[in-house]
Specification:
The structure is a single chain. With 204 residues, this protein is α+β, with helices and mostly antiparallel strands. It has three domains: 68 residues, Alpha-Beta Plaits, CATH 3.30.70.3150; 43 residues, no CATH class; 51 residues, Nucleic acid-binding proteins (OB fold (Dihydrolipoamide Acetyltransferase, E2P), Beta Barrel). It is built from six helices and twelve strands. The strands form three sheets. A five-stranded mixed barrel has the order 8-9-10-12-11. A four-stranded antiparallel sheet has the order 1-2-4-3, covered by helices on one side. Strands 5-6-7 form a three-stranded antiparallel sheet, with no helix packed on it.
């Protein structure tokens, strides 16, 4: 009986974590705050640990998708631009879907490998494999498109020379008269010219 117990214990140590546990990865909510002209992702290290990816890989994805420079400061990520929490959260979610989640079994128990210069996502739970680029287009299509006469919730990141609050949503810069920096407000889009939008605060 003792020999059986020892064999069973040894066998369990050889089972991959993805198969030996029913736990699912819980993606931590990004803790974002503005520090001077920079945006700090305070719990960057916790996010990297949860998804089991190289810090540099996630970090360079954020820099590329957010169009900014930055650096890793210990367990924090510093982005050289004022960004809203929603902007950072959406880019982390897109990374999670693109580089972590298995499209076959919807589990996060995966790792990245390279085959003939093609980055592949291999699932440790079901064995599925796919090239990462296969869903990149779909991820890009989720970028938000603003519409006139619609209401959006935005974070005021800065104040312009004329005193108007400035918010950013994806590629758009939104001017909000009467809004103060650091406030989250609901605005109605009045007019869109290219990637510039003009709005006013609404109370719902």
């Amino acid at each position: 009986m003792q020999e059986y117990s020892q064999l069973l214990a040894r066998a369990r140590t050889k089972i991959p974590h993805a198969m030996s546990s029913g736990e699912r990865v819980v993606l931590p909510e990004p803790e974002v705050f503005i520090e001077g002209k920079n945006t700090v992702l305070k719990n960057f290290g916790d996010i990297v640990d949860a998804i089991r990816r190289e810090p540099s890989h996630l970090f360079h994805h954020l820099l590329r998708e957010l169009g900014t420079a930055g650096n890793i400061d210990g367990r924090r990520a510093v982005l050289k631009r004022k960004l809203s929490e929603e902007q950072v959260r959406e880019r982390i979610k897109s990374y999670f879907q693109m580089y972590v989640i298995c499209t076959e079994c919807n589990r996060p128990d995966t790792h990245l490998i390279k085959e003939d210069r093609v980055l592949m996502l291999e699932c440790e739970a079901c064995g599925a494999r796919r090239p990462v680029k296969a869903i990149k287009v779909a991820a890009e299509e989720t970028a938000k498109v603003l519409e006139e006469n619609k209401v959006y919730e935005v974070m005021i990141e800065d104040v312009g020379k004329k005193g108007d609050g400035i918010a950013r949503v994806d590629k758009y810069i939104i001017y909000v008269p009467g809004a103060s920096r650091g406030n989250k407000v609901k605005v109605k889009i009045e007019k869109i010219t290219g990637t510039t939008a003009f709005s006013h605060i609404v109370n719902e």
